[in-house]
Amino acid sequence: MLHWRQLLLVVGALILAARGLNPAHGEPLPNPLVISEVYNRSHARVAMKYDPILRAAEEVQRSSSLMKRCDLHWRHATVDHFSWAMPPRNMTTFTQRFFVCNEHWTTYGNGERGPIFFYAGNEADVTLYLNQTGLMWENALDFGAALIFAEHRYYGESLPFGPRSKEHPQFLTAEQAMADYAELILEFKREHGCQNSSVVAFGGSYGGMLAAWMRMKYPQAVDGAIASSAPILAFDGLEPPYDAGSYAKAVTYDATSKAGAAPGCSEAVRQSWDALARQGASSKDRSRLRNELNLCPDIPFQSKEDVTALALWLQSALDYIAMGNFPYASSYITNGNGVLPPFPMRVGCELMMGSGSDDIGLIQGIVKFANIFYNSTQKATCLNFRQGVNPDTDEAASLWGYQWCTEMFMPSSRGGVTDMFWPQPWNETSAVEGCQKEWGVTPRPRWAVTEWGGRKISTATNIVFANGEYDPWSGGGVLESPNPSIVSLFIPRAAHHLDLMFSHHLDTAEVKEARAIQISHIAKWIGRRPKASEGMRLQSIARSVPQKN
Amino acid sequence: MLHWRQLLLVVGALILAARGLNPAHGEPLPNPLVISEVYNRSHARVAMKYDPILRAAEEVQRSSSLMKRCDLHWRHATVDHFSWAMPPRNMTTFTQRFFVCNEHWTTYGNGERGPIFFYAGNEADVTLYLNQTGLMWENALDFGAALIFAEHRYYGESLPFGPRSKEHPQFLTAEQAMADYAELILEFKREHGCQNSSVVAFGGSYGGMLAAWMRMKYPQAVDGAIASSAPILAFDGLEPPYDAGSYAKAVTYDATSKAGAAPGCSEAVRQSWDALARQGASSKDRSRLRNELNLCPDIPFQSKEDVTALALWLQSALDYIAMGNFPYASSYITNGNGVLPPFPMRVGCELMMGSGSDDIGLIQGIVKFANIFYNSTQKATCLNFRQGVNPDTDEAASLWGYQWCTEMFMPSSRGGVTDMFWPQPWNETSAVEGCQKEWGVTPRPRWAVTEWGGRKISTATNIVFANGEYDPWSGGGVLESPNPSIVSLFIPRAAHHLDLMFSHHLDTAEVKEARAIQISHIAKWIGRRPKASEGMRLQSIARSVPQKN
């Protein structure tokens, strides 16, 4: 049985694919499109090799180029929309950040303004989404749309209690964030006199959940939603129930030949945990293993608990790599802090299968696999399994932990049979106790289903749910369309919200088709066809002539 | 210009048609059906005459007869669903009261249970709604439905902080109450294994708003809603805007011959205010007037402000009488504390026109008119214009004032031109200041439109909105159907949610037709036709054979 704190870290980290930069830096985040162009001359099975200086230069260039197209705005948001209790320090409002990028915003012949594409920010600095959400950028011109990227309260620079926000996390809930977004949209419309402009919400991962829920709860503010990799069905209390083991099953699937990985990989991964347990059983074994694996000298590796911690750390890497199992190289999953190769699960499986099949070989294989993620910068000189890929973002990760411990209480389990891990059953009691200890809050496991409806979403309209075959979150996604106006796209060979990203010449046919379907639905919701052809659309991002007013 | 406090009292009181009994008494409320039977031998224009002892006996008999058919339940409700701040006195939950009346609850051949009729309690003790909502009772047998009457937090006996609840009103919001109801419904379904049972929400006035919003915000919990006299469009920020003067216009309409009142009545009422001002202009005049009107000796009547207070008090009576302008005698508007005659606006107008047309005659006329309401018990020996009709209920009324001062901030104005009153323009600034002074809260005038969508409700389905021609709240109701699944019934000759009440042989053809339409839509939502004919249905209330399980 896992200790609750380890469990929290693992579960809490799962969804946090996109971590925010340290807000103190305030730097825009890099865009993987540019980075991956360095890789374009290689192919899917290439190992990591790139020029860090070129990469850094291109990142800055690309990021600033997108940021320059946007205006920074701040608004007064209500800290607590649903009660009238006085918040701590009498802070009834806070300043919420959002970006408006309206160079392509059309004015129609009748004087009305074009549509609004609205990114429902999730658990990171909003500049991450601004820089990554190619689907919005690439279609702005053709639809004559203004882009709004709204930051989620408590993340990035939208801090209700400033630097002390983490001390007062009580108002960090999806309902409050969605009310911020609804107010923002209506304010924006009033200020710009564009009450008739259609609004399409976009979001990936937790942001996709918010986009879909915005359409359900605030249909007057949001006319349609592109909800990508949005696990709104990953909660307790569903009928039929959510399969808490689906995440691990999907990670396992990604390590099989069905997903293009080397045959035998998932079996080798499964064996590696036993190998690790055997080779770490005694104090003497652990001393030997420390040297074999080149563990950092200051990291304790003296108990069985340390061995378990190492295993969890390795497992977590595979969870992330599966989410980032994109067809081209990308730094999205590492938040710009290192690059994953194209189809990194396949690369990891190559490394795994290229190692020996004895205990030490298996352990070295799984460590190499995990290092695709942890040492994506190729700068680590030793293995530090007490540290994540991006230590700067601990704060953002911990805030997601708070959300998980309150209303986003998604169960997670592994069994070692249908997945390639070891038995880690879901224990609600211990998870609740962990949350009480960590945050002083008691999760309400049934709340999500009560508030968001579970599987009963058939009254909703104008939502495209997209889930990727390789994305471990797809098991919590909407995979069946309950009515013709809710579209469920299952994208073969796609990982975590690939469809939202910038177009890339290594994009699969399937993700291109998914985007075309999304665009056709957006056109239907807006009631206007996009102006230009596919070819035109992909060029639009390069145009620089402002069309304001 | 009105003083803010007067304005608050007037506006705050408007919607509070149904006041709760003093919760300390805990007595069930009388049902007007029985009371009005005493009147059946008289006709619409009869003045008040009845046997108080007979009335009281029948009330108790009828009320206990309905209450006996129900089981009292309590549940743990979450004080704050949308944030995780610690409520005062560490009270994270409270006990919410609800009644379940399931003698007619069917079990179908396939083992599934029949539908659930759910009353979304509003701003009074829930027993009031239990005893008044005939539409639910009369259709329970035919639909094989269980009835649930859920009490709104902070009213009746559902007090989050016990007797100190009024000190901590912060969690008294519609959103919190609706989350209580959603949780209650899902809990009930889990406990009874009836997940597939359809749920129809019922409500009148603010309860009708809650019923409609439940269908909009929690469509997974509520399959359809009967929203009667639900002024969900009585808020600021609508496009086109809400006519804040519509309430007064409708009260005025009820005093015209188009609404069956004596010709010239509204004009006489309009003149009475000037007459009052003239006759109360000097200290000497006021002394004379005090005697003429038989004001209670201990009530000050020395200043022009006192004269204004008297005018507001009289005006308020007309507001209530218009809401209670039912075709038969009823104590609903007085909450059981006195009976209004059939079509009391017509009776009032008779009294008005029967008085002289000079200043004193007009003033005596308007006082007699108002006394239909204030002296409905016929026990008052003098006129006390500093006291409402039902002083016991000050607490409930004041809590509605809190709701008005936070999110239910409905504007109200009078002009004296399209209505029969005097100029009382809406002054948001002064209303806000009043709320700050009274409750220490600042209303958020735009919140209602943001949260509930204003006129943009076309994505909703399965709602019947019913509004009465005589009901002053109809101006804030949904009078146009935005889609075929949202039905708007405008019921001629009906006042405030008459359609929800028990059938009565003085019911108009129009209200009978409205109920038939409501029943047909309920049948559609449930997917089952009612079992019996209209005649059967009306008898069902009298049956006493329990059909549990």
Automatic annotation (TrEMBL), chains A, B:
In the record, biological process GO terms are:
proteolysis
**Record field: transmembrane:** none
Q: Enumerate the Gene3D superfamilies for this protein.
A: alpha/beta hydrolase (3.40.50.1820), Serine carboxypeptidase S28, SKS domain (1.20.120.980)
Record keywords, A-Z: Glycoprotein, Hydrolase, Protease, Signal
SUPFAM superfamilies for this protein: alpha/beta-Hydrolases
Gene Ontology molecular function terms on file? dipeptidyl-peptidase activity; serine-type exopeptidase activity
Tell me the Pfam families matching this sequence: Peptidase_S28
Residues annotated as signal peptide = 1-20
Q: Which InterPro entries does the annotation name?
A: AB_hydrolase_fold (IPR029058), Peptidase_S28 (IPR008758), Ser_carbopepase_S28_SKS (IPR042269)
Family, per the entry?
Belongs to the peptidase S28 family.
Name of the molecule in the record: Lysosomal Pro-X carboxypeptidase
Which species? Tetraselmis chuii
